[in-house]
Every structure is written in structure tokens, then in C-alpha cells.
Amino acid sequence: MGDLVLELIPSMIGLMATPIAIAGAILLLGTARPFANALAFTAAFLLAYSVIAAVVVGFATASPEPLLSVRAKADVEIGVGALLLLLAIPLIVKRRDRRRARRAKRGLAARLHDATPPFAFGAGLTLAIVNPNVPILVAGLAVVAASGTGHVVGAVLLVVAAVSGLLIPILWRWFAPASAPRVLARVTAWITVHDRTINITILLVFGTAFLVKGLAGL
């Protein structure tokens, strides 16, 4: 079990590093229904990733042998690493239109400002699916599927990691209602300004990490 948890650490860290989703949750905390909207947004991530994890765990627990071989797990990790690196290329080579990016962010902020829980849930579900976290989750679930035991624990750790980055600002806002909004607003502003650099860094770092990990496992 300990070896499984250690092998899941790269995936868990990658799942926690979701700057756009974290910024979305923080923005929703500034709406008229802050906690209802932010929790609906988080619930969408929880639902999407729980369903994916449950499918893998269901097949893994039904098999008397590990669902994936060590070689297959390594192949999945190589594929995930290559995909993340490929996703970084357009962000690196494409020249950014700062004016258009600012307009898009203002439009998103305006839509979120008037959000309702159903809208927040739908936005969260869309973002949960169209997100580099999905391949990272797949890499982590490949580790779970290749393990002989601990499938449920491993899957739960991955899902918890995926939503922890969203839950932290919600809990902070709940327990520190006076000071948290100001600090969270600064965090959101910083993420918004540096989102391209952050996303490139995350894709390159974790793409390289999974590629190297997969190649080492061949």
C-alpha cells in the first residue's frame, strides 16, 4: 500500500495544480451565493473524476490479476507525458493577443458574477472534462490498475487531490470571512495575469515527469 501511495504522488500533485479551476472557484466565492456556487462548481469536478475512477476500480477489483501489466502502465504514462508536452506547444508558439485575452477574462468574470448553482455546476463539469487533469488522472489510475491491492484507496486519493485545490479557498473563505476575500482576490488576479506561464510550466513539468517515469518503467 505504501508503495502505491508513493507512486501516486506525481499524479496527486498534478491534480492539485489546476490554476484555472482554482481561479474559477475563487471568483464564484465573490458572487451573491458564494458557497452554493463554489460548492456546485467543486461538486462537478468531484462527480466527473469519481465516475472515471469508479469505472477503473470496478474493472480492477473484478479481475483476480492486476488489470494492467507493468509494461502497459508504463505505456500509459508515456502517452500521458507526450500528450501534456504536445498541449504545451500551442501555448508556447502562439503569440498571445493580450487585448483579446483581457476581454475574454472580463466576459468570464461577468458571467460568473451572476452565476447560479446550476450554472456553476455546468461550468465546473465542462472545465473538469476539458482539462489537462484528465490525462493526469488517467496516469494515476493506470498505477491503481496495475496494483494488486489498494484500488479503492488509490482512487480515493486521486479524486481527493483533484478537488482539494478547489476546497482549500472555500474552507479558507468559510473560516476567515474577514480576511480571506481580499487575499483570494489577489491570488485570482495573479493567476489571471500569469495563467499562460503557469499552464506552460505545469504541462512541461508534468509532461516530462510522466514521460521519464514511463520510460523508466519499460
Automatic annotation (TrEMBL):
The keyword Transmembrane applies. Keywords: Membrane, Transmembrane, Transmembrane helix. It comes from the Bacteria. The chain crosses the membrane at residues 12-31, 38-62, 74-93, 119-146, 152-176, 197-216. It holds the Pfam family SfLAP. This is Sap, sulfolipid-1-addressing protein. It comes from Jiangella alba.
